[in-house]
Write a structure and sequence with these properties.
2 domains
């Protein structure tokens, strides 16, 4: 989503046409984001205000991937959540109970206002034996005033205090990609991942067995591509370069 379709809330030229072509041709697709703050309905509205119209079912977040993972591992369980509506709603919808009383899991997600009290509670629960997962490993996130500490940075703090590492669900874990493939009943060999980051998008697509396309409208720049030990199948300036191929 970010860096491919929109950048700081503004439409990347051609992104609206690309999505429209996907819908016209009936090709199954999902828009992915590691951000767990917003629900798919929230993101649908944000995209619509940018000029991109798509159904809510076409949005796949790290919060949804986390909920899918927990539902598969321990159905009808319980969790203590550090996060916002995107994450808590996803867990409620799979039947999870949110509690700080001996939960099965501590789940760390993105929030714009991390609470020291909530982080302290998470540390104590993990030290007492709660399993620990986090929505994504991104250390910082963007804001209008500059970067903000994100899930990965707070996870590092908790790891230091507990001696326990979390299991990250979102990109670059290919689990998120495979869950997305299952959601649209697609096969990796006939699916393309389009992303703007080599260290999360491209590697996750690669490890999930998909073809990968890097666009240069987000994080990774052209001169940085050769620094990585793996390569995308293609590098293009922006998603506008792919419209005629849909």
């Amino acid at each position: 989503m970010d860096g491919v379709l929109v950048h700081e809330g503004r439409l990347i030229p051609g992104a609206d046409v690309f999505i429209a072509r996907l819908r016209e041709t009936g090709r199954p697709f999902l828009v992915l984001t590691n951000n767990s703050i917003f629900t798919p309905r929230d993101l649908q509205f944000r995209l619509r205000t940018s000029g991109i119209d798509l159904p809510v079912e076409s949005i796949w977040t790290s919060a949804l991937a986390t909920a899918t993972f927990l539902d598969d591992q321990r159905p009808q369980g319980s969790a203590y959540v550090v996060g916002e509506a995107g994450l808590t709603t996803a867990l409620h919808e799979i039947g999870y109970v949110l509690t700080d009383n001996a939960p099965d899991y501590v789940v760390l997600g993105e929030t714009r206002t991390y609470s020291f009290e909530a982080v302290t509670t998470a540390i104590r629960l993990i030290r007492n034996g709660a399993r620990w997962v986090a929505t994504n490993p991104d250390p910082v996130g963007p804001s209008r005033d500059g970067v903000l500490p994100a899930t990965g940075a707070v996870a590092a703090l908790i790891s230091k205090a507990t001696g326990v590492e979390p299991y990250f669900i979102g990109k670059p874990n290919s689990l998120m990609m495979r869950a997305a493939l299952n959601r649209i009943e697609a096969h990796s060999e006939s699916t393309v991942m389009i992303g703007d980051r080599m260290d999360t998008d491209v590697i996750a697509g690669l490890e999930a067995g998909m073809r990968t396309v890097l666009v240069l409208t987000g994080i990774t720049q052209a001169e940085e591509v050769e620094r990585f030990p793996y390569r995308p199948n293609r590098v293009v300036a922006s998603i506008a370069d792919l419209v005629e191929e849909v």
